[in-house]
Design goal:
heterodimer; A: 437 residues; alpha/beta; Aspartate Aminotransferase, domain 1; Aspartate Aminotransferase, domain 2; seven-stranded mixed β-sheet; four-stranded antiparallel β-sheet; 15 helices; 17 strands; B: 157 residues; alpha+beta; Sufe protein. Chain: A; three-stranded antiparallel β-sheet; binds pyridoxal-5'-phosphate; SUF system NifU family Fe-S cluster assembly protein (chain B)
């Protein structure tokens, strides 16, 4: 693993003392909800924001707000600098070069950008360099059974438009990918392999290097959904060797409205654009247009500039804290959560059992009580969790459920909070009058 | 009573287990070849996955028709299941117009954000669901069966 600079000064997971200091940077955490101290365990859905991130956005509007890449006035230059510096910062955070990072609205927009660009390479008059992205009848787009809808539906649509076939790697009872089945699914027909780094439901961390090698061996392009990994562990896209990776700012301390697509430079420069219009062209005549190289080629229209500035502040905050340390801290919280849940009668944790590696989150089923009621009960104690299918209906169906309750941690959660959550969960079945194991 | 206890009143927890009317057979879920006077509707709350298929059987014709049976199949939280159960107990035997009136008053209470308390004389056990209106995220759960019943009833007219 690549160590970020701050990791050289500290080793091991964050400590409870440090986490309490970190919490001071997140004003929202210091509040009462329904008469109890807020316990925010829904960072898998969206994270809270430190003061430095909010200040970065405000500072931009107070000092530098202007359009970027247009106009010659001083503010426009300052805004462009902020915007491009932010790109370099976020790119470096994942081990990419700055021309390899495209801003998008969020991960969903990023995955659609890739799927639609592949689609644009599949129909009509396609330049030679773009044919490598084409899919059509007889080709396969491979995904997994654990995908978030954002990394499933765009591929279903690509297949529907082009006549390609969608196939998927099944998961096993413990939530892990069935690697034996996977081996047989990579064939010369596989043109695209899109999969998640970390499951937002089971917390399973997929073996990215191994899977990517299997995909590259058959000549497939690899698209990584890094939504649940970029915020929580050291992500090095070059070491993982993926062709594309996608993530959302709002899950990693940044504001909503900004996310990013990483793509290998030679791929992004060859790929046809998705959204077209202003800011992404070279010469336009009444008949046709030429396109800028990446990343501008994929950034049509006015961009989320203040959000980009704040995204940079967010990854700086993470880097200074140390991604490896954050990862270790959250892993410990996740293990504590799973072990505690396993001890409560009538609780079934989805995914790997305690002792097996997982991200710092746990989704679970409470026998006899619907997830929506579980979430309501916990909310009365000030505990914020997510209920429902978490945008992963096929995964839930595979595990025999329609919904579950998910608690997900981040760098600002304490062991006390995990314990408060466990105590509250133990009260769910008694409250609803359900007895027995 | 805490806000939580006002939401989960004993009647509701019991009704969620009793599930009166939850006897729609698997082979009837599609709602194919419904005879005259019978309507059926499927409702899904995509946010939390609550789901119901509800069938309304009527006797008589036109505005004189009355509900003679409610049968449903569903899966969801205690609020949605209790609400379907209470509805089933409440409307059988009532005229179509009366049922529509009940649905309207129930909807009004649910949308009141805690300002209206249901009249037990009119809404019976459904009055126990009044507390739901203070939880905007749960109103859809409580309304699910009622929306299905309204649609199914309209098909019988
Ligand atoms: C694994 C995964 N992929 C994709 C997404 C979609 O992210 P967004 O809603 O920010 O586009 C999420 C967020 O819920 C996620 O957890």
């Amino acid at each position: 693993m690549v160590l970020k600079s701050a990791d050289h000064f500290h080793d091991g997971p964050l400590t409870d003392v440090e986490v309490r200091r970190i919490r001071n940077d997140f004003p929202i955490l210091d509040q009462q909800v329904n008469g109890n101290a807020l316990v925010y365990l829904d960072s898998g859905a969206t994270s809270q924001k430190p003061v430095s991130v909010m200040e970065a956005e405000q500072e931009f509007y107070e000092q530098r707000n202007s359009a970027v890449h247009r106009g010659a006035h001083t503010l426009a230059v300052a805004a462009t600098d902020v915007f491009e510096d932010a790109r370099a910062t976020v790119a470096a955070f994942i081990g990419a070069a700055e021309n390899e990072l495209v801003w998008t609205a969020n991960a969903t927009a990023g995955l659609n950008l890739i799927a639609y660009s592949f689609g644009n390479a599949s129909v009509g008059d396609v330049p030679a360099e773009a044919r490598q992205f084409a899919v059509g009848p007889g080709d396969e787009v491979l995904v997994t059974e654990m995908e978030h809808h954002a990394n499933l539906v765009p591929w279903q649509e690509l297949c529907r438009r082009t006549g390609a076939t969608l196939t998927f790697i099944p998961i096993m009872e413990d939530g892990l990918l069935d690697m034996e089945a996977a081996a047989a699914l990579f064939t010369s027909r596989t043109k695209v392999f899109a999969f998640t780094h970390v499951s937002n439901v089971t917390g399973v961390i997929n073996p990215v290097v191994e899977l990517t090698r299997m995909a590259h061996d058959v000549g497939a392009l690899v698209v990584l959904d890094a939504c649940q990994s970029a915020p929580h562990l050291v992500l090095d896209v070059k070491a993982l060797d993926v062709d594309f990776a996608v993530f959302s700012g709002h899950k990693m301390l940044a504001p909503t409205g900004i996310g990013a697509v990483y793509g290998r430079a030679e791929l992004l420069d060859a790929m046809p654009p998705f959204l077209t219009g202003g800011s992404m062209i070279t010469t336009v005549t009444m008949e046709r247009a030429g396109y800028l190289p990446s990343p501008q080629r994929f950034e049509a229209g006015t961009q989320a500039i203040s959000q980009a500035a704040a995204f940079a502040a967010a990854v700086n905050y993470l880097s200074e804290t140390g991604m490896e340390r954050i990862h270790q801290w959250e892993s410990a919280l996740g293990q504590r959560m799973v072990a505690g849940l396993e001890d409560i009668p009538g609780i079934r944790v989805l995914g790997p059992s305690a002792g097996t590696a997982r991200a710092g989150l746990a989704a679970f089923e409470v026998d006899g009580v619907h997830a929506h009621d579980v979430g309501q009960f916990l909310d009365a104690s000030g505990i914020a969790v997510r209920v429902g299918h978490h945008c992963a209906q096929p995964l839930h169906r595979r595990l025999g459920l329609s919904a579950s309750t998910r608690a997900s941690t981040y760098l600002y959660n304490t062991t006390d909070e995990v314990d408060a959550f466990l105590t509250a969960v133990a009260g769910v079945r008694p409250y609803f009058g359900i007895t027995g194991a | 009573m805490s806000a939580l206890d006002s939401l989960y009143q004993q009647i509701i927890l019991e009704q969620a287990k009793t599930r009166t009317g939850a006897d729609l057979a698997d082979d009837q879920l599609q709602g194919l070849h419904l005879p005259a006077g019978v309507g059926q509707c499927h409702q899904l709350n995509p946010v939390c996955g609550d789901e119901i298929t509800l069938r309304v059987e009527t006797a008589g014709t036109g505005s004189g028709r009355a509900v003679s049976g409610i049968h449903w199949a569903g899966d969801g939280c205690s609020i949605s299941m209790a609400s379907a159960s209470i509805l089933s107990e409440l409307v059988v035997g009532l005229g179509a117009g009366e049922v529509q009136g009940l649905i309207d008053s129930f909807r009004e209470v649910m949308r009141s954000r805690g300002k209206l308390e249901a009249d037990e004389e009119v809404l019976g056990d459904a009055a126990a669901l009044s507390g739901v209106s203070k939880f905007p995220a749960r109103v859809k759960c409580a309304m699910l069966a009622w929306v299905a019943a309204e649609d199914a009833l309209n098909q019988t007219g």
